[in-house]
Structures are given as structure tokens and as C-alpha cells.
Amino acid sequence: MTPQDNSVARLYRLAQSARSGQWSLERDIDWSRRPRLPFWMRRAQARRALSQLYHGEMATSRLCEALLADPTEERYEVRSCLGLQLQDERRHAAAYQRYLDALGGIEPLDDGLQRALTAARHGPFGNLGAMLAYHVVIEGELLRLHGVLAQFLPCPLLRDINRLVGRDEARHVAFGKIYLAEAVQALSEAERRALYAWLEDLWQKAAQGVLNRRRTNLAIAAFFRRWLGGGWTRHAQALDRLGLPATSAREQAA
Length: 254
Ligand SMILES: [Fe+2]
Ligand SMILES: [Fe+2]
Fold this sequence. Notes:
By secondary structure, the protein is mostly helical. Helix content is about 75%, strand content about 0%. It has helices spanning about 5-20, 25-30, 45-70, 75-105, 110-120, 125-150, 155-185, 190-210, 220-230, 230-240, 250-254.
């Protein structure tokens, strides 16, 4: 079995587990419960933070649609994984939308995140760059955020949503690792370096945007500083495992 056959088999297995792991908003979540926030958090703050998750899900569904519309990607196992991911992302967005409706509605996407998502979609590396940015950087962050939310927002309804969403996201990250490692292998050394530098720059700008925002709640401001401190190192390790060398943007420019 060649490594490529092996990745085909792994993608088939992932698609199979995505099919059997489909859950339903109505059947699997008890919506008779109301959102429960900690005493120190205002509803508007919770709405703003959770709305970013909703917009992230919507942006990821749009990326899946664009990838599925690409006629050059003909592999059945890849298209199956992407099609199932699209269903997952739409379901995730619907779950967060329903939760946010109970909190008073969806807030707009943060400007910095909007810029990062637009830059990720329209960068010089086309769909491959967009997938890398979304899968490694954005979905990786979302998975981590779910863990933190479970700790800070002890809301049983949100915990149930995040548990189901997190299970799907872990599968999307697994798909990204298989698909992207192969795509990265096909690039030249110079292209890999440039791609790495572009991703690092994208993440640093988004992180700076999040850090520079004025916050009245000091606990939340401190939380974001801790969150982003050393954040790129984790992504650099993930990118390294995909075959992208850890070259900093500064070295790239030198
Ligand atoms: Fe999602
Ligand atoms: Fe996802």
C-alpha cells in the first residue's frame, strides 16, 4: 500500500464516521432549557463572543461550498468529506443561531476577524491557502475555544451544543491534516516557505486586531492576552507536521 492509498483509505473511513455521526438539532439537543450565564458576564458580552463562533461556522460553510464547486477536485473520497463537512458546518451555524436567538440575537462579525477571513479566502495561494488558514488556524482555535467555554460558561445547553460541534470539528481537523499534507508535498521549497510566511502574517494581524480592541471587562481582556500569548507556536508546530517549514516572516523577507 502506497502512502497515497493509505490516505484514500483514511478519507473513506472519515467520511464513513461523518455519515454515521450526523446529529440533529431537534433530536439531540434539549431546547426546553434556557442559556445560563455566569453572574459576571453580561448578555451582550456573551452574545458578541458567541456570535463570532456563528460567523466562523458560516464562513467555513462558504469555503466548503467553494471547494465543492472546484471542478479540478474530482476525487470521490475528498468530495464526500467536503460534502459532509458542509452539512456539519450548516448544522453548527443553525445550533449557535438558535442559542443566540434565545440570548437576544446575533451580533455582527468582529472587523479584525472579517479581515482575516477575507484575506484567507482571497490570498495568493488560492484554495490551498484558504484551507490551510481555515483548517489549521481557525478550526484549531475553535476547538481550543470550546474547551475554554466549557470552563468559563457552565451552561448545560451550550455545553451540549459544543460537545456535538466539537466532535465534528475534530473530524474536520483530521480531514485537513490528511488532505493538506498531501497538497503541501506537491509544492516547491520556495512555495512552502512563502505559504508559511503568509499564514503567520495572517494570524499575527488577526491576533493583534483582537488584542487591540478596547475592553471594559478586565477579566476578558486578560483572558485574550493569555490566549494569544505563544499562540502562533502551536500553529507553527501543526504546520510543521504538515510539511511546512517553520520559517518566520522576518527570515522570509531577509
Ligand atoms: Fe463547524
Ligand atoms: Fe469545521
